[in-house]
Design a protein that fits this description.
single chain; 4-stranded antiparallel beta sheet; globular
Length: about 250
């Protein structure tokens, strides 16, 4: 279902699907003179969907259908469990690189930020993306659509949260104040695939275009964006490096 490398590349985590449902940890090695990856642990998980390491590689977050588990990588033991605060199954999650903040989203349209720096993970703020932000009136006789976050992301320092809905609307919030920093809606946009939303190290946000055939780089403070990649096929996932703006602007 998902793969994740630890930040230094020395450990690979894999998540099996459905009945197999195991979290497996792998380390590089050699066997008969050939480089290979050896399984060092297998932890039963059930129906789980996604993985995230924190920036130190000490903790691994696992999103299942109804809860998020935090695993201590050194001991391979569960260090915390976050029960689903949403009325329906989880749809997306992220763990900040500094390990202090967890973000979850559910089918009913809520996005919740959690304090993950303590053993008892507690909710900090909840936002709603359940109301359609698509511009223009609905066609006559059409009911308002159900809207939820398909993908979410946290800035590396855990200060900002972002989400893209099934309609393709991009949201960004300040977690300290709860302020809505950005809403970018498109009349024809479709929901993005998982893995297509990432903060860069300087706080800018990489998100799919409305057509999903390209990626946009958002300057959240200025509420502007520009297309930085395009192609003939939809982008499935992206991971930006730390983008540093040189003197005089540009990237």
């Amino acid at each position: 279902m998902d793969l994740a490398f630890s930040p230094n590349g020395s450990l690979l985590a894999s998540l099996g699907r459905h009945k197999e449902g195991a979290l497996r940890l792998w380390q590089p090695g050699e066997r008969a003179g050939a480089k290979t990856w050896a399984e060092i642990a297998a932890l039963p998980m059930g129906r789980c969907l996604a993985l995230r390491f924190d920036g130190s590689g000490e903790r691994l977050a696992v999103m299942c259908e109804r809860e998020v588990l935090l695993v201590d990588v050194a001991t391979r033991l569960e260090s915390a469990r976050v029960s689903n605060p949403h009325r329906e199954d989880l749809t997306a999650f992220d763990l900040a690189a500094n390990g202090t903040t967890l973000l979850t989203a559910g089918h009913a349209g809520e996005v919740t930020a959690w304090d993950a720096a303590t053993p008892t993970v507690t909710p900090v703020r909840t936002f709603s993306v359940g109301r359609s932000r698509r511009p223009g009136p609905l066609p006559r006789g059409v009911e308002p659509p159900e809207v939820w976050a398909v993908v979410v992301a946290l800035s590396p320092d855990g200060s900002r949260a972002a989400a893209v809905t099934i309609e393709g609307t991009v949201f960004v919030w300040d977690l300290a104040t709860g302020a809505e920093l950005l809403v970018d809606a498109h009349p024809e946009a479709g929901g993005p695939p998982s893995g297509s939303l990432r903060f860069a190290g300087n706080g800018r946000l990489l998100a799919p275009t409305g057509s999903r055939y390209g990626m946009r780089l958002f300057d959240v403070s200025r509420r502007t964006s520009r297309t930085v990649a395009s192609g003939s096929k939809a982008y499935h996932a992206a991971d930006p490096p730390d983008l540093v703006e040189p003197p005089g602007g540009g990237d």
